[in-house]
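Technical appendix A lists one of the benchmark inputs used to test multi-chain prediction within the project. The record comprises two sequence entries:
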Amino acid sequence: MVPAKPPGRPGDNPSQPYFYPPMPATRPDPDTAPRRTPWLQAWVAEAVERIEADGPLHDEAELRQAFRSQPTRQAQFLERAWLLGERLGLPRELARWRHVGGWVVLALALAMVLSGWAVARTVLGQGRDINAIAAFVATLGLHGLTLLLWGLGLLWSLRGRADGGGGLSLGRLALWLTARLPLERGPHSLTLLHAGAALLRRQRLLPWVLGAVSHGVWTLAFVLILAMLAFGFAFHAYQLTWETTILSSSFFERFVQLSGWLPGQLGFPVPDAASVRQAAAASGGAGPDAGQRAWAWWLIGSVAVYGLLPRLLLGVFSAWRWRAGRARLAELDKTDPYVRRIVARLDALEPPPQVIDAEQRPAPLAAPPRPAGPPGAPGSLAVIGFELPPEAPWPPAGLPAERLAGAHPLARIAGSAAERQAVLAELAAARPESLLLVCHGPASPDRGTARFVREATRLAGRGALWPQAGDARANARWRAWLDSEHFEALAGVETATGAIKWIANSQESAA
Amino acid sequence: MTEPLRIAIVGHTNAGKTSLLRTLTRQVDFGEVSDRPGTTRHAEAIDLRLDGQVAVRFIDTPGLEDSVALLDYLQGLPGESRPERVRAFLQGPEARASFEQEAKVLRTLLEQADAAMIVIDTREPVLPKYRAEIDILTWCARPILPVLNFVRDTASRRDAWHQALLESNLHARVEFDVVAPFHGAERQLYADLATLLPTRRQQLADIVDALARQADERRLAACRVIAGALIDVAAMRRALPADQAGEPARRQAFVRAFQDDVRRHARGAVDGLLTVFAFRPDDAELADLPQLAGRWADDLFNPELLKDAGKRLGLGAVIGAGLGAVADVALAGLSLGAATTLGATLGGAASGGWRPLWRKLENRLSGVQELTVEDPVLLLLADRLLDLARALARRGHAAMGRLSLHAAAAAEGGEGGQGDAPLYSLVRALSPARGHPEWERGALRGMLRGMLRGTDDGERRALEQLLARLLDARFEATDASLAASPPPALSAPSA
């Protein structure tokens, strides 16, 4: 196992070979290359997957480097993608997107600040009379509408629809603008953008990211509106009134009571019914008194509680969801065929199985010496069945009965130590001229067989081995085994006729 | 971090030890498998990695070939206990001479392994040498799990072996065909090992869980490979200019090129499936499997099969008889002409936007004809790929022969008669892809168009997921029915 090294960019280590194809200026520039975070790595990995959809990239060097430098498959997968991404210039693109995205968000924030300023101007700027209800709608109307749309979009996307971008929100506008601004673009810049969006969508994070952006911008706008309202009400004397043609004054009383309830809970003064009635524009109004102060606080409280507070909370919540979900982004989807292909290639880089006890083939055993003394009578025959299966016929079918009648020993053994000793003793006593060993063809010859064959054949004038009931492949296997075990003196027969012929040979030579 | 479990794989020569390891570790190229005796002559360690960590370290050992003589020899050695005698043997001279190979096995078992699996070729009779082998192994005082191999073979002597194991006091056993593993046999193998290694029970349970998770991931990945290929093929759309449409020769060449592209996608899916199930794409043995040799890729345009598939889809026998002048072209399974594809496009217009429809109308006015794939081809393709995926999922990594699917294919045919609701819903789910020619992977034209239009492939992915779920449901269904048919994979030890 290669010890895991802390992740480092390939440029960090000049001694390590690193493969760059002829692509100019793709070496990451420390100033512009973004810092590697899990989210950026996942983003680049997704983009590389998309680029590879039409054919894999040449990645031998990157794959090996990722394998060497990272401990887990997940980290190796992301590292490989990152290295390939560097080759393709993706981090640079990424930096550019961030750059552009930052400007777009800033521009949006500026626009919102301007619109907030405009709203505050419309509220405060038309003389000393302020239509309180119109001011309420002007400051909170658009905000309420977009908040509703965002909520609906969120529900939609959480219910699993593919396209859940948070409806018509500022965040979506920012994304749209970033994608469409005609700026200097690399070859993979759109791919990168799609990859990012798809990645977020897949992990159900897109609404939260876009939400964090739009709520942030709205929060900024509300802070400004509140500051201007507070400034205006603090140092100018305004007349807060209401007007109506068709509504009754009780409607305004109820409206103020209802809308003021929540700010009231937080300590904002709420105009009472009397001051609401008094504030009717028709009634001519009154000087700056307690009632007017309550009206001003009611407006400020409403903007703070219904405008700033929800945006701030939702912004924080979105940011928290995004932070919490970011860790998930880097997780490998093992059911993705593309991921599996890369992981399989990483698996192939694992060191091969390790030989822990190498082969030391002992010198071939010297054939035991032939026993002294005369061999058996000419023409004498022994037939031994060795390790035959129980259903094999015995004596072997196909051999002439009269020859078998004269065979001694004519034995079949399963191969236990006692049986082996017994039959070897019989052979030693009989010393036949010919020994026919019958084995089970389909079985594999092994060194136990070799030991017995060696010990038995030295007690006979000549020997033959008949692997019974084997097919052509089994016969070839036995023949190869006879050669490899140096049984050159042993004849191999494969059929009953072959065996008869081999036995007859001995009779001819005897005759 | 727990120590990996160390398991020695022992057994007689040529019983299938290396094959078992290939199947358990899903590594096709581990060791050397052949029917030559004594192929493995050294002890070799191979790791089973789960989630990147070594979970089990298997040690492949050479065969115990000369067990009768060794047992005889061991019995004559001095020592208080049996393991003592084995140690005496390992230190003695014969451990480096006549019993060198056997010494490797015993050394591994005594010094390096927590347990042993003894692989038994049940086609062999229970001979004294095998009994001696088991005896010697029990002398090492390590838990031993007998793995009965080739139990599905007609020549298997399963019962005799059961008896022999009981006589050697081995009461746990697993039946495991290394070439065609039983459904769930791997799980049972580890579960049974846990009864022999109670201290490692939790570890083994984790392994079983991780293996199950991996199997699920593999299956789902396979379904996604198939889903991707189906979308590619369903999205295929090639325009034939008006002046070429009139010439039969040009048109035939056009149709042939289109069919080749369909086969290319099928081939891509096959390669993907092989990767998912950790087989080598260039595996010589796999290359001449009937499914992989492209035989069924030709079947995709076989009029008879398409007719059957059309019946299964409830389309009747009108397949290939699209619109207009198709009768003179061998258009099996393909549609040529503006009007039929117009219908399909209208169907997909809701999800695909109106642009394809507009293009279609434009083509129609300028006399351009477009070639697309008909539903029966998709059905056949889905069917074949699923068959292959199922076969690969249950194929052992030691298999050297051909993958025979006749039985499965027959079962499939029988099912087809009663209509194929799941596959039908699958084909219907593919209809949105028909409105998105840019969804076809590997078609440069399509990719460029996708880039220019600035689409991202969220919809394609969503469809792929949906199809994968449908395929997965079908995968499982047949899996269960097949698993039920063979004799019970495991039998409880009957003491």
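The first helix of chain B runs from residue 17 to 25. The two ends of chain B are 37 Å apart (CA to CA). Comparable benchmark entries are summarised in Table A2.
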